Amino acid sequence: MNSILGFAELLEDSVLSKEDHLKYIGAIQQSSIRMLNTIDELIQMSKLDADCLDIYIEDVNVEDVIEDMYVLYKPEADTKGIEFSYENNHKAKEIIIFSDKEKIEIILSKLISNAIKYTNKGSVKFGFDFKTKTNEIQFYIKDTGVGISAEDQELIFEHFYRIDNGREIIYEGAGLGLTIVKEYVKILGGRIRVESVKGKGSQFYFVLPIH
Predict the structure, then answer these.
(1) Among candidate residues 146, 68, 155, 136, the one with its CA nearest the CA of residue 108
(2) Position 8 confidence tier, pLDDT thresholds 50, 70, 90
(3) Strand locations in the chain, DSSP E?
(4) Rounded CA gap, 25 and 15, in Å?
(5) How far apart are the first and last CA of the chain?
(6) What pTM, to 2 d.p., does this model score?
């Protein structure tokens, strides 16, 4: 909010160049998006804490969800100059599971967004495979980003936790995204885990029952 107010005041300067004018408008837009995301996460956490979250179980076409995520985040990855792809090792055009589509989209969205945010070069890829013995589907998101230390891996799913470099927070965010992810996965009857090496990237896996 401080950023929005500050740049709004700068726009009142009548001698601003067109370039500066557009730059400040862009900054206001980005700050507004971040603020809306933070408010949305706080609302989601409030619903989780109050145990009043609505769950809608339906047929979910996994291919459609994966392709939608690719289309949604490809421009952001292109802007950072990193390779972005999804893997499809299954020939079927329709792969259906019985779950909550909106919650799955939110989980994937937050994990993919984080992967892009924490990757400055290299790649981000995601996809899914089946665990036939347990009748489950496993989604994965892999990046070549900054990685997560062993100590941080035990804490990243906690409320308001954000990774720092020992001196300051190095990436923006309220520290609620992964908490929401973990809770949504749990609500859908699944589990989540992370594998990472500091400086070499991270891999997030979450498993959901097919039915």
Answers:
(1) 68
(2) low
(3) 58-61, 83-87, 96-99, 123-131, 136-143, 191-197, 201-209
(4) 15
(5) 43
(6) 0.78
